[in-house]
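Trying the structure run again after the queue cleared.
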Amino acid sequence: MKRQTIVATIILLATVAFALAPLFRRNVDIPIPVHHALHAVMMAGAALAGILFAGSSARERRSGAAWLIVAIFAPVFAMLLMWPSEYSFFEMHPNGHVAEHLGLMFLALVAGYGGQRYANGIGWASGIGIVAMAVLGIWGYGVAPAITAPVVVAASASNAVVVPNVAHGSALFTQNCAVCHGVAGAGGEGPPLKNERARKTLAATEAWIKNPAPPMPKLYPTPLSAQDVADVAGYVETLR
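Done. Tokens:
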């Protein structure tokens, strides 16, 4: 086995181990900009491995337009995997989160490999392009706008309108959540919840409380009702 292939294999295995992180940090809430930075590191490793695997197979002549198509469309599919509306789902489903990471890795790998197979140097261009999308995300792509106040629109006059009661939510948080997340969400055994609204929408926070990932306990539908969950979520959104 060529030395270059051995190096590529080591890089790829290290990147795979990095991609499995959500399985081991289920109670750690990472801000979206930091998450994008981690995606960038992961995809950079996979793209570099792809370039090294391809080696000089293209030599000085192009080896097929199919490889160019792969190099062009892999970054497009990677962008779709990083779509903002998917964040809440992946936060609540670590296995799905890992699948997303492996998908991003695969796309970065084929972007680097395919580009380099088409022509020397193209792999570097496509690899840098796919990593650049995640890097740009650090400065705003996919970050939910701040919520100034919870707004609920009733579908009809007969439907009950659930409006968060922040004062009640604060009391419930102290009784049920502060033991792990700390007073005012400062953090403890559980992750800090300050500025949570920069990571989750109000609806996503409610969904997380209703269906949390271990070791966070499931308190809905008992002892917390749907109104209680809305109140706690509304309170969490106010933490700075």
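Residues 142-159 have pLDDT under 50 and may be disordered. Worth checking whether this holds up in the mutant runs.
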